[in-house]
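Notes on consecutive records. When two proteins share a document, each keeps its own sequence and its own C-alpha cell line. Never mix them. Below: protein one.
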Amino acid sequence: MRFIFSVIAVCLVMITAKLYIPEAKAQDMGAYDLFYDPNFRKAVGLVVSDNCKATIYETVSVYDPEYVDNIKLDFISNIEC
C-alpha cells in the first residue's frame, strides 16, 4: 500500500511540474518573413561579419510600412568563410 502511495505522489509531482514548466515553441516563419525580420537579419549579419568576408555589390532601400525608416538591403556578390 505504501508503494502505491509513493507512485501516486511521484506522478502528482510530475504532473504539477509539467503544468508550471513552459514549453518552447518556435514561430513558423517563411523565407519572406525571415528576409524582412530585423532580428534575424541582425543575427545573420553578426555571424557573417564575425566569421566571413562579404563583398557587397549593391545597397537598395525598401519601404516597409511597419517601420518609419526605409530598410537598407545589401546584395552580396561573394562570401568567403
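Protein two starts on the next line and is unrelated to protein one.
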Amino acid sequence: MKVGQRLFLSVLPAVLGLFFVAALAYWGRYARTAPELVIVLAAVAALASLVVAWRNTSYVAHRVQRLAGHSWRTSGESIASRQHALRELGMIDELDDIEATVAGLSDAVVRAREDAARHVREAVARAQEVEALLQAVTERFAVRAQEAQLPLHILLSSPFGELNENQEEMLGAAMSAVDAMDTEVRDLRKLVQLNRGQLSIVRQPMNLAELLRPTLAIAAARAESAQVQLRAVIADTVPRVTVDAVQAQEALTSLLTDAVTHTEKGGDVDVDAGEVDGSLVRITIAHRPALAATDTAVPLEMRLARRLLEAQACTMEVTGSSTRIELPAESASHIER
C-alpha cells in the first residue's frame, strides 16, 4: 500500500464521522428519533475509524522514526533482498524505497570512513618507517663522514711527501665537501628527531641581546668574508624572550648566514629587533640587493630553522628578501602557564 493511500485512510474516518454527526443532528431534533441502523453504523464506523487511523498513523510514524534514527540493524544487502521479496508480493511502498536508499548511503558512508581510517593508519605507518630509515641512514652517514674527515685533515695538516698545488686544492675541496655533507646529515638527523619528538626543547627566559650575541658574531665573520655590511639594531626596552637558547641560536644563525650568502657584494644585511606588543618580540632580517636564486627548492638548513622555531612556539615568515621571526615574550609565557 502506498503512503498516500495510508494517509487518505487516516483522514477518511474524520470525513465519515462528519457525515454521521450531521445525520445524528438531523434525527436528534425534537420529536424525531434516529434509526437504530444509523446509531449502529455510527458506532461501528467510529471503532473501525479509530483502529484504521491508529494503525496507519503508528505505521507511518514508526517508519519515519526508523529513517530518522537509523535504528535498522541489517545491512543494505539484506534490506535489498527483503525489498525484492516484498515487491514480488506487491506489499512494497515508497517508505521501503526510501529506507533502502538511506541504508545504502549509510553503508557507503561507513565503508568510506573505514577506508579513510585504514589509509590514515597505513600512511602513519609508512611515515614512521621512513623516519626510522632516515634516522638510521643519517647515523651511518655521520659515522662515515667522521671517518673520512680524519685522514683528510691529517693529509692537509702534515702531508706525507711533497704535494703540488693541484693536489692540495683537490684535498681541500674533498675536505670541504665532506664537511658540508657532515653538516647536512646532522641537520637531516635533527629534523627527523624533531618530527619524531625525540629532540628535547627546554624553554627559559633569556635576554634578547645575549641570545643574539653569538649569532651576530658568526654572521659578522661571514659578512666580512663576503664583503657585505651587517647592521644590527636591538631596542633597549625589549623584554626577555622564552626560548631554548641553543636551538634558537642555531635557527637564527642559519637564517642570518643564509641572508648574508644571498646578498651581493657591497650589499647590506639589516637586523632589527623590537617589541610588537606585550606578548611578542619581532626580529626582522632584510638583505639587499639579493642575489638571483638559482634553485627554488628550500634548503635543508632553512627547513630545520623553521621547525626549530616552531617547536618553541615561534613563527617565521619569509617575504622576498625579508625574514620576520616572532618570539614569545616572558610575560606572554607566564600568562600562558
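For the record: The radius of gyration is 41 Å.
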